[in-house]
Amino acid sequence: PEQLDNEINNQNAWLVCDPTNTNVFDYDEEEQWLKALELCSSQMLSNYL
């Protein structure tokens, strides 16, 4: 219960990234999800290195 409210109200609770057209349009379903996680992880790590 209240999961969405907690995610919205807590700063940095969501994993976000800058999408590419390739990630949005060239993959379907599970592959799109996996590519999005890979991209977000890569972008997040580059902020710390």
Task: Give a written overview of the molecule.
The structure is a single chain. The protein starts with a helix and ends with a helix. 65% of the residues lie in helices and 0% in strands. By secondary structure, it is mostly helical. The protein has one domain (3-48). The protein is flat.
Distance between the termini: 36 Å
Structural class: mainly alpha
Major sheet: none
Overall tally of structural domains: 1
What is the total tally of β strands? 0
Order of helices and strands: HHH
Apparent shape: flat
Rg value: 13 Å
Count every helix, treating DSSP H or I runs of 4 or more residues as helices.
3
Low-pLDDT residue spans: none
Architecture blueprint of SSEs:
Elements: H1 3-9, H2 21-25, H3 29-48
Salient structural properties:
49 residues, 3 helices, 65% helix, flat
Compose a concise summary of this entry.
With 49 residues, the chain is an all-alpha fold. Helices cover 65% and strands 0% of the residues.
